[in-house]
Specification:
Distance between the termini: 105 Å
Strand content: 15-25%
Oligomer: single chain
Number of strands: 22
Structural class: alpha+beta
Largest sheet: 5 strands, antiparallel
Shape: elongated
Length: 634
């Protein structure tokens, strides 16, 4: 190719080469690039034609013809960095480097420049190196970079300020970007999310709904909304998602965590229901009280007037006096129920818990009510011959029994009424059974609710059984009812009992010599009653067992009974079993605790031992395994 035409060629006469060189410099100048060189031996610096003009230096009044003059024009904050780069090239440590710097004009104008420095390959053997460089005006590029950084920073601040986060999905339902504040916990890292489809993170039903919405957004170009629910680490989260077309093949999903809002709405709804129920109960209470109080008062007033008449026989006076007395008793019971109800509502009812003997209570109740039985109804009392001592509020226990017995008398026209006390392994059972009307099945669940009555025409305001239930619960027990319509009912309640307070069933023999001392108890904490009964049948002839169905109940029983061994279910809801072990360990470092699991999980076993258990075992209960554990621990 002709050297005149190929201006990159170095062939031809010197004039051609010069013209070619000027062409190259002219092209570079159009792109704000200029050439320069530095001779290390003479410390001279040279520039290509129009150097200062091409770089825009001439416009801001910058001119220099020495290396020192150039350094003087560099922004003070950039001088050290530039010198370090320059010296790296001069020393031969680097063959090529780039460095950015600013230069300040006469009127404080700032230009950004970039030098690309090279050592001259033909000068390797020279006493001092020579440097060739090309300098570029990058002011526009730097301004664009700064603008981009500003926009990114600005956008990040906006994103950080918003409670929402965003996902960008493509038309294959794959997540291609994540937009979220650094303060938002997405449960997954950005790397774990990007490149994966919605079906990998959502339940199948939710994933199908999201994919359908993505398709609709892309096909119709409209915005769609969706409410989602996700469970993470057994915690339910609620989200509101807004899907919008982002490009021809992409959809932007803006998602907001509304879990707290949903909880607040649920709490408000619960509060609304409670308020409505309270209003209903208040209305029912006022209606019932006004009627029930008026009835005995009218009877008392009426018979009080009649009894003052002079022409009454002694028998008639006794009858009227009896009616006045019975209606006065009814009126007093109504007042007492109302007072108890108000105290429970205000959580002010105080308990007088002390060590009391229970067997005489059954005898006292029998003597009190035997004379009040209807014709054809027989009262039967059952209780052990031994004294039964326990810590409780005897007056409140008596109040519950009075309620059960009066209800039985009211609803029984023939047959028997049985009042009974039965000492069990870890509680006392008191019950009243009758052969009366019974309770319909649909009424059983509501029988302990306020103002609920089996017979709407019977006397009373429906507070007796709800009060009885609350008393039993305050005493740490539970209440039950078993009834069959037309055959009778049994009302029972169970109170916590420590047999060491004064009663020992002589049929109970201890299996191990280590457990032979009175007061050593095995506390079983298991919500599964059937499993406890199986264990009870397995060990009842050899050990004294106590049962707790919940973590709170187990800690109370632990404090009260001081068991030698605790069989603790480690799979109670919300890790309550682990918390109960921690509390027991705080109370006693000597108690032996065996952690119970539904299946063998060695990692969980290790965690239980680290949490304070002495042993662990998997259910179902094994007599051989239990004997081995008891012998080791005791």
């Amino acid at each position: 190719m002709d050297a005149e035409f190929n201006f990159l060629s170095t062939e031809g006469d010197s004039e051609v080469v010069k013209r070619n060189c000027r062409k190259i410099i002219s092209i570079l100048g159009a792109h704000k690039v200029a050439l320069w060189f530095y001779d290390g031996s003479t410390k001279c610096i040279g520039y290509s034609d129009d150097f200062f003009k091409n770089l825009g230096l001439e416009e801001i009044g910058i001119q220099y013809d020495t290396y020192e003059g150039f350094i003087h024009s560099v922004h003070p904050n950039d001088v050290v960095n530039y010198l370090n780069v320059f010296h790296s090239i001069m020393s031969g440590a680097e063959q090529m480097l780039k460095v950015r710097f600013r230069t300040i004009g006469l009127n404080e104008q700032t230009l950004w420049l970039e030098d690309s420095l090279f050592t001259c390959p033909e000068c390797k053997d020279a006493s001092a190196p020579r440097i060739i460089g090309y300098r570029t005006n990058i002011t526009n590029r730097v301004e664009e970079e700064n603008r981009t950084q500003y926009i990114e920073s600005y956008s990040r601040k906006i994103i950080d300020a918003f409670p929402d986060f965003g996902f960008i999905f493509d038309n294959k339902y794959k997540m291609i970007d994540v937009i979220a504040s650094q303060h938002i916990n997405l449960f997954h890292t950005r790397e774990e999310l990007i490149g994966h489809t919605v079906s990998e993170f959502y339940e199948p039903e939710d994933a199908i709904a999201i994919m359908k919405i993505i398709d609709e957004c892309l096909s119709t170009g409209t915005i769609k909304e969706l409410e989602l629910k996700m469970t993470f680490n057994e915690v339910v989260f609620h989200f509101q998602a807004r899907y919008s077309p982002f490009s021809d093949h992409e959809v932007l999903a803006i998602i907001r965590d509304v879990t707290e809002k949903v909880k607040q709405i649920e709490a408000l709804e619960e509060a609304r229901k409670k308020a409505e129920e309270a209003e209903r109960l208040k209305t029912a209470f006022l209606a019932s009280v006004s009627h029930e109080i008026r009835t005995p008062l009218n009877a008392i007033l009426g018979f009080s007037e009649l009894i003052t008449m002079n022409d009454l026989s002694p028998e008639e006076k006794n009858t009227y006096a009896s009616l006045i007395r019975s209606n006065s008793d009814l009126f007093l019971k109504l007042i007492n129920d109302i007072i108890d109800f108000s105290q429970f509502e205000a959580t002010e009812m105080a308990l007088n818990v002390q060590r009391v003997e229970m067997t005489h209570l059954i005898r006292d109740l029998y003597e009190l009510y035997a004379v009040k039985m209807k014709p054809g109804v027989k009262l039967i009392a059952g209780a052990p011959n031994e004294e039964i001592w326990m810590q409780t509020d005897l007056n409140r226990v008596t109040q519950v029994m009075h309620n059960f017995i009066t209800n039985a008398i009211k609803n029984t026209d023939k047959g028997d009424i049985l009042i009974n006390l039965i000492p069990l392994k870890d509680n006392i059972k008191l019950s009243v059974s009758d052969t009366g009307k019974g309770i319909p099945a649909d009424k059983l669940e509501k029988i302990f609710e306020m103002f609920e009555k089996v017979d709407e025409f019977s006397q009373g305001i429906g507070l007796g059984l709800p009060i009885a239930k609350r008393i039993v619960q305050r005493l740490g027990g539970r209440i039950e009812v078993d009834s069959e319509l037309g055959k009778g009912s049994t009302f029972s309640f169970y109170l916590p009992w420590d047999a060491s307070l004064g009663y020992t069933d002589t049929s109970i023999n201890l299996m191990k010599e280590q457990l032979s001392d009175l007061g050593k108890i095995v506390l079983v904490v298991d919500p599964d009653k059937r499993a406890f009964l199986e264990l009870h049948d397995m060990l009842a002839n050899d050990l004294r067992l106590a049962w707790a169905r919940s973590a709170d109940e187990s800690v109370r029983s632990f404090v009260r009974m001081h068991p030698a061994i605790v069989l603790m279910s480690m799979e109670l809801p919300d890790n309550q079993g682990w918390e109960a072990v921690r509390k027991m360990r705080q109370l006693s470092s000597n108690v032996r605790i065996v952690g119970l699991f539904e299946r063998t999980e060695y990692n969980r076993f290790k965690e239980a031992l680290a949490a304070g258990c002495n042993e662990v075992m998997a259910k179902p209960y094994s007599l051989v395994r239990l004997n081995s554990i008891f012998s080791r621990l005791l």
